[in-house]
Amino acid sequence: xxxxxxxxxxxxxxxxxxxxxxxxxxxxxxxxxxxxxxxxxxxxxxxxxxxxxxxxxxxxxxxxxxxxxxxxxxxxxxxxxxxxxxxxxxxxxxxxxxxxxxxxxxxxxxxxxxxxxxxxxxxxxxxxxxxxxxxxxxxxxxxxxxxxxxxxxxxxxxxxxxxxxxxxxxxxxxxxxxxxxxxxxxxxxxxxxxxxxxxxxxxxxxxxxxxxxxxxxxxxxxxxxxxxxxxxxxxxxxxxxxxxxxxxxxxxxxxxxxxxxxxxxxxxxxxxxxxxxxxxxxxxxxxxxxxxxxxxxxxxxxxxxxxxxxxxxxxxxxxxxxxxxxxxxxxxxxxxxxxxxxxxxxxxxxxxxxxxxxxxxxxxxxxxxxxxxxxxxxxxxxxxxxxxxxxx
Amino acid sequence: xxxxxxxxxxxxxxxxxxxxxxxxxxxxxxxxxxxxxxxxxxxxxxxxxxxxxxxxxxxxxxxxxxxxxxxxxxxxxxxxxxxxxxxxxxxxxxxxxxxxxxxxxxxxxxxxxxxxxxxxxxxxxxxxxxxxxxxxxxxxxxxxxxxxxxxxxxxxxxxxxxxxxxxxxxxxxxxxxxx
Lengths: 392, 179
Prior knowledge:
- Chain A is mainly α.
- Chain A has one domain (5-374).
- In chain A, 78% of the residues lie in helices and 0% in strands.
- Chain A is built from 19 helices and no strands.
- The longest helix of chain A has 32 residues, at 36-67.
- Chain B is of the alpha+beta class.
- Chain B folds into 2 domains: 7-54 and 132-178, Alpha-Beta Plaits; 57-122, no CATH class.
- Chain B is 45% helix and 13% strand.
- Chain B contains 5 helices and 4 strands; from the N terminus they run βαβαααβαβ.
- Chain B has helices at residues 17-29, 46-49, 57-83, 96-122, 159-168, and strands spanning 7-14, 35-38, 146-151, 173-178.
- Chain B has a 4-stranded antiparallel β-sheet, covered by helices on one side.
- In chain B, helix 3 packs antiparallel against helix 4.
- Chain B is elongated, with a radius of gyration of 25 Å.
- Chains A and B meet through helix 13 of A and helix 4 of B.
């Protein structure tokens, strides 16, 4: 349907995304000749943020297949569209793979030699061949799950009765695989920037953050499309109420994991664990930590308690946009002190990489979103929707 | 003329939720405010149709939660700093990071407790007597019938006119509720 208003809106959205991609990538190209190390370190953050939107969406997609609920039915297709950007993310990982030496100190033989801790870790785990093999495995699992789930969901539209059972059956084991792979990927790509330090909470912190990011994106998508058929059938106050409540829960989970990791390190008070926090408690990083505590937890906690706020698509979308920006800041606080221990030193390349990758990510996301009907048919919940025709 | 006897209100009986919803909207449009609906299952939109103001319960629960947080943190602070100071591994007496998990738990505990007690209080429960049970058919409010009761306390309530109004909504029957 060329006259489809949703398609027209997506076409409108594609223009700024294209502009962001062109400007951002051009700036990145300039950065390549100016300071390759700075570029790649900024690139890592942008990559982790945008890939996180896809991974969080993949996780939520499987959760809603298992849990049911009208919120899941309403955002199922946008979640599938976001998860299906993962092949692009695999491609975008190549610069990190090729530029390992610029990002990770464990990739330098002279740094590793003579350091007994690093010698052991690099010998058994953090070496280039194994690093590459694991990355390939993660992307195989992620792309496989995303494409299979999206494909089966389309098959269900066509009336394949087995697909309903199949989607549930894959989602359970799929979530286990996703949890394990995100844990290992966060260790490989992010935690290994400080290779002496380790934390078993690290992967969970990423999972909670990614789930929250994906949910916030869904709020923005549904708020943007809410005026047009068929999104208007589901994008009603009860849906935004549900999404707002889930965002509230996930900000709390994020705070819980962030704080638990700190509490354990603080209680243990061991010399191999505390440096990570010591580094993040000086030179201006402590101000960022305080800002995150306040703006990423305390303020959204009280805002998202309000039923009236959650039921208003416009206000909730504004809160979601601010929180999504804070998600970047959280990643910056976790990642950047490894590279800039003296204190936060924002650079235009941070913005350029976020813009460039974001533009590309959104272009593929919008294309995926336009490629399938926005509401799944043959979902048991679709019939439910028809029966309660008048929205509350 | 019969002698005046105070009544609780007039009650219309319906056999499906949509008819009740329409009746509640009509009654509200007619200006009635003091009315109550009784249903065997939750009916979407009924609260709005009756014109109920949003419940105060969330604010009370918020207050309970904050009180729980203050009480939980305060108890630990008082024990560790004031009443029984102990040097544990050289840490400061006011080791606030360690106080956070119990503080969270007391916040949840006080919120949940406040929610239950305040819900009962706001609903004026337990209530050993209520006039609606004087209507014999009312027992079906817990199985398959939907009731709308316009109370005599409403300023617009008039024995004859209100009955005529309710009959106009085409209920199964309209009955007087003795108080």
